[in-house]
Structures are given as C-alpha cells and as structure tokens.
Amino acid sequence: MAHIIAVCTSKTKGTKKETVGEGTVREDLGFIGDAHADSSTHRQVSLLAIESIHKMRDLGVDVGPGDFAENLTTQGIDLLSLPLGTQLAVGKEIILELSQIGKDCHTRCAIYRQVGRCIMPTEGVFTKVIRGGVVRTGDPIRTKNVG
After folding, report:
1. DSSP letters spanning 6-34
2. Using the 8-state DSSP alphabet, how is residue 83 labeled?
3. Which residues of the chain have pLDDT under 50?
4. pLDDT tens readout for residues 109-135
5. CATH label of the domain that carries residue 68
6. Domain that holds residue 59
7. Rounded CA gap, 147 and 85, in Å?
8. Cα dihedral 21, 17, 122, 127 sign
C-alpha cells in the first residue's frame, strides 16, 4: 500500500524542510506554518517519492526526506504516471489535486550545486489542497475516484 514516509515543513523558502511527523493542511492554502503555503498558487503541497530520493543516494549523495524541500515524501505510488487533475486521498481527510509535474529551477539549490543535478524539477509533483486535515507519517495515500 502506498503511504507517507515523511511529513516535512520549513519556515523559509529555499531551504531544506524538517521532518515533523505530522502537520495540518488547510484547504486552498497548504501546510500551516510552511513557507510555501499560499492561497494564490496551485503549488500548495509538494510530493516526492522516496524512490526518487534513492536515485540520488545511488549517486553517492547523502540525502533524505525533506532535503528537496518537498512537503510529503511518498512510497509505493508512481507520482509521475498520474495525469494532472488526479485527486489523491491522504490519510483520513485530505484531498489533494495534482496541479503540476516538475518545475523550473531558477535558483540552483544546494543539492544541485553539490552534485550538478536535482530531482525535484523533474520528479517532484505539486498539488492544490481541495480538502484539508491532519497528515501523519505512515498515512495511506491513494488515488481517489472522481465523480
């Protein structure tokens, strides 16, 4: 079963996120207390698969959940295969809608400067919060049937 490996937040943009165990996500905003929470964007919650992080580890880089500034680190779900608009049910309450796959990386992050490559621009996904709630490490994540 696909699930959340880590819940991560930061108070400042452009930095690694800290794993927090659990967090509150607000509808049309994002994680309470996270620098990227913003009602004016479609990139309210970011997700990255632990499988992608393992690719960087295989290159000899000591990285883990939150190091790519993702809010949720997942395991067992192929995020990149999901079409835009897919809804994800996270835990008992949260509904996220896939709004963007990858991103432009204008300000090269610390990981990029260290190894010349970063996975978030190509393997990270971004979502808009449709319904908020509390998310915890270990919570299931699944695609939601719409309609």
Report:
1. EEEE-SSTTSPPEE-SEEEEETTTEETT-
2. P
3. 147
4. 655 555 556 677 688 999 999 999 999
5. 2.40.33.20
6. 3-144
7. 13
8. positive
